[in-house]
Amino acid sequence: MNSKQIEQPAKQKKCNHENETEENSAEEIGPFLQRRINFLISALGSINTNFEKPSETIDIDVEIQPYIIDNLEDKVSVAVKAVQGQVWSQKHGVMFAGNLERLDEELAEIKEEQAARKNEILKTEHKNAS
């Protein structure tokens, strides 16, 4: 066999896999997985006779919980806009941004920082007025 003959089937197989992926992406993932699970259960019953009867009566439902990678920068931006727009409370904004472990401490720190900023602004205004 020469190298061209070896490469050709590999390329052919890769193309078939890409087409299969495109077809599968057009389906809804839930029914897609349900069919695959039903097939595996049936195949298991056919292969192992001990599982033949149970494989005919078993009923498995697929429940998919989407996994979303959180972008912290986006979450914080949304929280800040919602709090500034007075759509959410500060507590809700901090919770949405994902800082639940230190919620009460974080809210206390925010209030302290706001009070310190107000005091600095008042001092600056008092100096400017004098």
List the main descriptive attributes of the protein structure presented here.
130 residues; mainly alpha; 0% strand
Terminal-residue CA separation: 96 Å
Task: Give the topology string: H per helix, E per strand.
Answer: HHHHHH
General shape: rod-shaped
Radius of gyration: 30 Å
Number of strands: 0
Beta-strand level of the residues, as a percent range?
under 5%
For the largest beta-sheet, the strand count, sense and barrel status come to: none
**Average of pLDDT:** 77
Brief synopsis:
The protein contains six helices and no strands. It has 130 residues and is mostly helical.
Outline the structure in words.
The protein contains six helices and no strands. By secondary structure, the chain is mainly alpha-helical. The protein is rod-shaped, with a radius of gyration of 30 Å.
Secondary structure layout plus pairing:
Elements: H1 3-25, H2 29-47, H3 52-57, H4 72-84, H5 90-96, H6 103-129
